[in-house]
Amino acid sequence: MSALRIQQGSTSHSAYDLRDYHAEVIEKHTLAVLVDNEAGVLARVVGLFSGRGYNIESLTVAEVDHAGHLSRITIVTTGTRDVIEQIKAQVGRIVPVHDVHDLTVEGPSIERELALFKVHGTGEKRIEALRLAEIFRANVVDSTLESFVFEMTGTSEKIDAFADLMRPLGLIETARTGVAALGRGGKD
Amino acid sequence: MTRQMTGAEMVVQALKDQGVDTVFGYPGGAVLPVYDAIFQQNDIKHILVRHEQAAIHAAEGYARSTGKPGVALVTSGPGATNAVTGLTDALLDSIPLVVFSGQVPTFMIGTDGFQEADTIGITRPCTKHNWLVKDTDKLAETIHQAFHVATSGRPGPVLIDLPKDVQFADGTYVGPAKAKVSHYQPKMKASIEDINNIVQMLEKAERPIFYTGGGVINSGPAASQLLRELVEATGFPITSTLMGLGAYPASGKNWLGMLGMHGLYEANMAMHGCDLMINIGARFDDRITGRIQDFSPNSKKIHIDIDPSSINKVIRVDLPVLGDVGHVLEDVLKVWKSRGRKTAITKAWWEQIDTWREVRCLSYKNSDTVIKPQYALQRLEALTKDMDRYITTEVGQHQMWAAQFLGFEDPNRWMTSGGLGTMGYGFPASIGVQLAHPESLVINVAGEASWLMNMQEMGTAMQYRAPVKQFILNNERLGMVRQWQQLLHGERYSSSWSESLPDFVKLAEAFGAKGIRCSDPADLDDAIMEMLNYDGPVIFDCLVEKHENCFPMIPSGKAHNEMLMGEASTEGAIMSDGAVLV
C-alpha cells in the first residue's frame, strides 16, 4: 500500500472525512460530569474516551452526594470545537450520567489541583527550595534533615511552574490529584 | 405486586409482566436455574438456537419485525462472548434487545472460575447499558429498568449479568408499576421554536429533499404514517437509507429509491443538488455521505434525531432538532397546515429529478444462459410483492441488490445488518421474524458465504417448523470483496472465492428441509414458485453470474455526483486517498 502514499494517522472521527483537522484550533475544556455512584461508571466514561479516540488531560472522581449516590467526575480534555461538542453529547447519553457541564463555556469557574512534591537536597539548594515554597504558599507537610514534602493547591499552571522550579533543586517525586472545578457565583 | 420468589423465577415473572412471549437462547451451567423456571411454565416460549450469536440475531429479527424488544438468554463465558457480535450489531442499528447472561456465583467472580468471563467489561462498549445484579432483591427492578432503557430514546441492546447464586436466592419481586422510575427519560418533543423554524424552511425551499432513516421505523408505525402524509402534502421528493426502507412506500410517486454508496443515481444527485435537506432519523453514515467536503455543498440542512450525539457528529447542520421523529413530524404537520400549507418547490426541480431518473441507473446486461443476480431479485420481487412478506438479508452484494430491486411498502418488513455489516445475520434473523409472524412469508436473501456463517441454524428452523426461505445468490465468491479487489487491488483476488462449497440441496435434505437448485434463467420462475409453495424451510441455491459487480457505486472518497454506473470502466476509479477507506 505504500505506493499509494496514504497519510498515516488521522485526528478525524469519520473515516470519510478527509479534511485537514490540524488546521483547526484545539481547545482545552473542563467538563464536570455528575453520575450515579455505581460499579463501573468510571469505566464507562473512560472507555468512551479511549474507544472514540478522545483525549483526557486530567481526571478526578469522588462521591459528592452520599445520600443521593452521586459522584462528580471532572475531566480536562482537548479537541476542536466540534470534537468537544461530540464528547459532551456522547458522555451525556451514558445511562448513569445525570448532567454534563462544560465549565469552560458556562461562565467563569475555579479550577484547583492539589500536588505533593518530594524535594531532596542540602545546603543552599535546600534553603532555596524552602524560600520558593513560601513564595508559592506551599506547605511543608513532611521533613527530614535532607528532604521536604511540600503540599500545594492551585491551578495546574501554578503547579507546573512550581515543579519546574523544584526540578533543579532536587525534586525526586510528584503526586498530583488532577483538576477539581466549580462554576463561580451562586447558581449550581 | 410484591412477593417472594427465587431470582430465576423473577426473571420469568418480569418477562411475563413486560409482555414477552418469546425468548431465544442456549442453556449452560450458569443459567440452569432460569432454564428450570422456564421449564415450569407455559407463557413464555423458549427457542433453542444452535449458537448464541444466532440467538441475538433472531431476537433482532423478532424486534425489528414487531417493534417490541427482543429477548435472549445465554450462559456465562463463551455464551456471553458469542453474543458480542449480535449485541454490537444491535447497538449500531439501534435495535431494542434485553439479553440475560449467566455468571459464576458472586463469591467466585474474579477467581477465573470455569466459564467465567468479565461479561460486563466485555459488553460495556457494545450495549446501551448493562448491569451485574449481585442482590436478588434488586433483580426485578433492574429487569424493568432494562426494558425501559432498551426501548426509550434511541433504542439499543442492554444486558443483565446474573450470577448463579442470585438466581437461586429468594428475594422480593416488584412489578413494573412499582419499580423505581429511571432518571433516564429522553426528550420526545421538540420546542415550538424548532418546529416553527422547520416549517419556515420547508415553506421557502425550492429544491428540497427528505432524507429519512431507521429512526422513522424505530419511532413506530405512526411516524411512518405521518411521514407519508407530510411527503404527499408537500410534494417533496424523498430518499431513505438502507435502514429506513419501507417508511415511505416504494410505489409512492415521490420515492427516489435508496441513497448512498450503492444507492440510486437520482437519489444521490438530488441529495447533491438540493437546497434544503431534511434528515429525519438518519445519521449521516459514511456509506451515505461519500466525501464529506463535497456532501450536498449548497443546501441548508435540518437534522431531526432523538440522540444528541448524532447531531453534528459528521455533518454540521443548520437546524438541529432534538426529539422523537413521530412527535416532531406531528407538530410540523400541524404548524405547516395552520400556516396555509405553503411550499416553494419548483417544477424545474422535479424535471431535473426526472432527467436523472431517465439514466435508469439500475440497468444491467441480462443473459439467456446465466442467471444475473439482479434478474433473480427482480423475479423474486415480481412473484412475492403482493404477499404478506418479510425480507432479511445477509451482508454483501446480494444485500445491496436486494435493497435496489425489492420494493417495501410498509415499515418493519425489511431486516438487514446496516451499521455493523454482519455476515451471518440474515438466516437467524429470518427465524426470529418467522416465529413472530408464523403465517407470513419470510425470505432471507443471502450470499453463499454469508449464509454459511450461521448455517447451523437449519436445526433451529427445523425444530420449530419455521418455514423460512433461504434464497442464496450463489456466485462462489465473496462478491463484494471480489468487487473491491477488482477496483482497488489490481484484480488480485486474495482469498475471495469459496472453494469446497457444500451441495446446498443435499445440505437441506440432511436437515430434513427442501433444497432447490436453479441455474437456468428459463427455470427461475418455476423454481421460485416451488420454493414459495413448499410448507417448510427451503434452501434455494440460485447459481448466478460469478463476476457481476454491484452498481451504481460511489467509489471510496468520492462525492455523490461522482457515481460509477453499470458497465462503467472501473480502472483508476478509486484514488489513493480513497483507498484507505473501507
TrEMBL record, chain A:
- Is GTP-binding one of the keywords? no
The EC number(s) this enzyme carries = 2.2.1.6
Q: Which CDD domains match?
A: ACT_AHAS
Record's catalysed reaction(s): 2 pyruvate + H(+) = (2S)-2-acetolactate + CO2
Q: Which UniProt keywords apply?
A: Amino-acid biosynthesis, Branched-chain amino acid biosynthesis, Transferase
> InterPro entries, per this entry?
Acetalactate_synth_ssu (IPR004789), Acetolactate_synth/TF_NikR_C (IPR027271), Acetolactate_synth_ssu_C (IPR019455), ACT-like_dom_sf (IPR045865), ACT_dom (IPR002912), AHAS_ACT (IPR039557), AHAS_small-like_ACT (IPR054480)
Position of the signal peptide: none
Pfam family, any one = ACT_AHAS_ss
Question: Locate the ACT domain: which residues?
Answer: 30-105
Give one GO term, molecular function aspect: acetolactate synthase activity
Q: Which SUPFAM superfamilies match?
A: ACT-like (SSF55021)
Question: GO cellular-component terms in the record?
Answer: cytosol
Q: Decide whether keyword Amino-acid biosynthesis is in the record.
A: yes
GO biological process terms, semicolon-separated: isoleucine biosynthetic process; L-valine biosynthetic process
Q: In which pathway does it act?
A: Amino-acid biosynthesis; L-valine biosynthesis; L-valine from pyruvate: step 1/4; Amino-acid biosynthesis; L-isoleucine biosynthesis; L-isoleucine from 2-oxobutanoate: step 1/4
What job does the chain carry out?
Answer: Catalyzes the conversion of 2 pyruvate molecules into acetolactate in the first common step of the biosynthetic pathway of the branched-amino acids such as leucine, isoleucine, and valine.
Assembly state and interactors? Dimer of large and small chains.
* Stored PANTHER family: ACETOLACTATE SYNTHASE SMALL SUBUNIT, ACETOLACTATE SYNTHASE SMALL SUBUNIT 1, CHLOROPLASTIC
Family stated for the protein in its record: Belongs to the acetolactate synthase small subunit family.
- What name does UniProt use for this protein? Acetolactate synthase small subunit
Automatic annotation (TrEMBL), chain B:
Q: Which reaction does it catalyse?
A: 2 pyruvate + H(+) = (2S)-2-acetolactate + CO2
Taxonomic classification, please? Answer: Bacteria, Pseudomonadati, Pseudomonadota, Alphaproteobacteria, Rhodobacterales
Question: What Gene Ontology molecular-function terms does this entry list?
Answer: acetolactate synthase activity; flavin adenine dinucleotide binding; magnesium ion binding; thiamine pyrophosphate binding
Which cofactors, by name? Mg(2+); thiamine diphosphate
Q: What is this protein called?
A: Acetolactate synthase
Pfam short name (any one) = TPP_enzyme_C
Q: InterPro entries per the record?
A: Acetolactate_synth_lsu, AHAS_TPP, DHS-like_NAD/FAD-binding_dom, THDP-binding, Thiamin_PyroP_enz_cen_dom, Thiamin_PyroP_enz_TPP-bd_dom, TPP_enz, TPP_enzyme_TPP-bd
Task: Specify the Thiamine pyrophosphate enzyme central domain's residue ranges.
Answer: 195-331
The EC designation for this entry is 2.2.1.6
Which residues does the UniProt record annotate as the domain Thiamine pyrophosphate enzyme N-terminal TPP-binding? 5-120
Top enzyme category: transferase
For this UniProt entry, which residues form the secretion signal? none
Thiamine pyrophosphate enzyme TPP-binding domain segment(s): 395-542
Q: In which pathway does it act?
A: Amino-acid biosynthesis; L-isoleucine biosynthesis; L-isoleucine from 2-oxobutanoate: step 1/4; Amino-acid biosynthesis; L-valine biosynthesis; L-valine from pyruvate: step 1/4
Q: Which family does it belong to?
A: Belongs to the TPP enzyme family.
What cellular-component terms does GO give this entry? acetolactate synthase complex
Cofactor annotation comment: Binds 1 Mg(2+) ion per subunit.
Q: Which Gene Ontology BP annotations are present? A: isoleucine biosynthetic process; L-valine biosynthetic process
Q: Which NCBIfam families match?
A: acolac_lg, PRK09107.1
Its domain of life reads Bacteria
Keywords assigned by UniProt, alphabetized:
Amino-acid biosynthesis, Branched-chain amino acid biosynthesis, Magnesium, Metal-binding, Thiamine pyrophosphate, Transferase
